[in-house]
Amino acid sequence: MKSLWAQYSEELRGTQFIEKDYGFISWSIMEECIYLEDIYVIPSRRKEGLALSLVEEAEEYGRKAGKPFSMAVIQLANNGHVESLKAHLAAGFTPFMVEHGKIWLKRSIKEK
């Protein structure tokens, strides 16, 4: 069963969620891409490739919708932004814009 936050976000904004016992990812299908909104893995399970697994699972929805890439944003004012950037880069994301205290990244969705 989805958390109340996931149910609320889906109803209010159309945000989609994948929730696991170790973390979650939320995303929206945009006109040009799939926009990854939030990715979280509990600290005790980090560095196991679980965030990448969540990204790939969400990107499957983007692939089915015909989107060529996924996009994410890191807010530099957030705690943990350096670790988040390292994780995104390790997962194959490429920065393409820095603006208003945010780093915008994208990653090609590979065909299966």
Task: Provide tags for this entry.
112 residues, alpha+beta, 6-stranded mixed sheet, 31% helix
In short:
This protein is 31% helix and 35% strand. It has a six-stranded mixed beta sheet, sandwiched between helices.
Task: Please report which band the strand proportion falls in: under 5%, 5-15%, 15-25%, 25-35%, 35-45% or over 45%.
Answer: 25-35%
Q: Unreliable segments (pLDDT under 50, ≥5 consecutive)?
A: none
Distance between the termini: 29 Å
Structural class: alpha+beta
Count of β-strands: 6
Oligomer class: single chain
Shape annotation? globular
**Rounded average pLDDT:** 93
Based on CA atoms alone, the radius of gyration comes out at 14 Å
Query: Percent of residues in helical segments?
Result: 25-40%
Commentary on this structure:
It is a single chain. By secondary structure, the chain is α+β, with helices and mostly antiparallel strands. The chain is built from three helices and six strands. A six-stranded mixed beta sheet has the order 1-2-3-4-6-5, with helices on both faces. β1 and β2 form a beta hairpin. The longest helix is centred in the middle third of the chain and has 15 residues. The radius of gyration is 14 Å and the shape is globular. The model has no long low-confidence stretch (mean pLDDT 93).
